[in-house]
Fold this sequence. Notes:
By secondary structure, the chain is of the alpha+beta class.
Amino acid sequence: MKFHIFIDRNSGKCIFEKILNNLGKYFQNFTNTNLNPFSHANSPFTMSTNRRSFLRLSAFALPFSGINQLFAKTPLAIKPLVISTWDSGQISNAAAWPVLEKGGRALDAVEQAAIAIENDINCCVGLGGNPDRDGHVTLDACIMDEKSNCGAVAFLERIKHPISVARKIMETTPHVFLAGEGAQQFALANGFKLESGRLSPDAAEEYKKWLKKAEYKPVINIEHKQSKTKGHGPFAPARLDDGSFNHDTMGTLALDAQGNLSGMCTTSGMGFKMRGRVGDSPIIGAGLFVDNEVGAATSSGQGEEVIRVCGTHLVVEFMRSGLSPEEACKKAIERIIKPNPERAKTFQVGFIAVNKLGQVGAYSVQKGFAYTLTTGDGKGKVVESKSYFS
Ligand code: SD4
């Protein structure tokens, strides 16, 4: 490799360009070895496959310290931002945004996102959701912050805000995960109110319908495209018959003004599930994963398929290796599909992800998955995800 750095010595601009040209060749040599903005090993000054070239390059480059600075600089992140699963993520994002806009913590924003959707009466999150096959609503939720603190509840009954119980576990106990009766006991001991356990009118009607056949048959949740579909099945149509928004499991990721990431996932799980069944949503690494150095991911869909591959952990690890959020989600979806592509035609899984730079992405098994992104102007923008099957 030749360096023509003396030719244009009188013009800083030219020197700069020449050096960049040569460094560009260096970069080309290394792009196949996982060039990514999150790894210190990717500085052109630390790559060492050719020691002589490296030393020569360093010697030439040192006097022009601006170049070192150029490569040391990480692109500015787009922040704050909040991204949630589905078009119903508009409800969650609208509750999270005021926290972020005021410079608040991503963790507080995602908790507010969860509370808003848990308050809303709908098929799939909170106490208004569809029950299990014995007629009881059981809730799953988890939360994770920028320091890898996390808390989770599963199979929790008659408590309105499972997300806040999860946060309480995270902040006040040595544990991560409480389930069932123990989780409820903990909630009551910490001032959460015991609710009646009555089904919402919608859920009661759905349960009555379901009991006629009493079959547990998950259907593909392509709710984004189902606006005219009647009946929820285990999953929900995008809008109810009266035109109001309906939705599915809510996963929310936020990047705050300080550049910190947090996430949450909350659900009443698959409708008419077996009693005691727990899906991916409360499982750290399945329904949600946050690594503040890299990014965060959350999921919606057939939980069993996500658990099998530790889905959101996988997405974050793919981002760590240099993939964009969308590429990382796609790779994780492909991992789910690979063992049995025929079977994959029968279920839905969707991932959303954000990296440290504020880039977001999504990918799903089936067409019809969507996410809501809020940043800048505070308005939630619904984006349809790419999918494996069209
Ligand atoms: C579950 N993943 O319980 C949840 C359900 C869901 O969109 O996400 N539905 O398996």
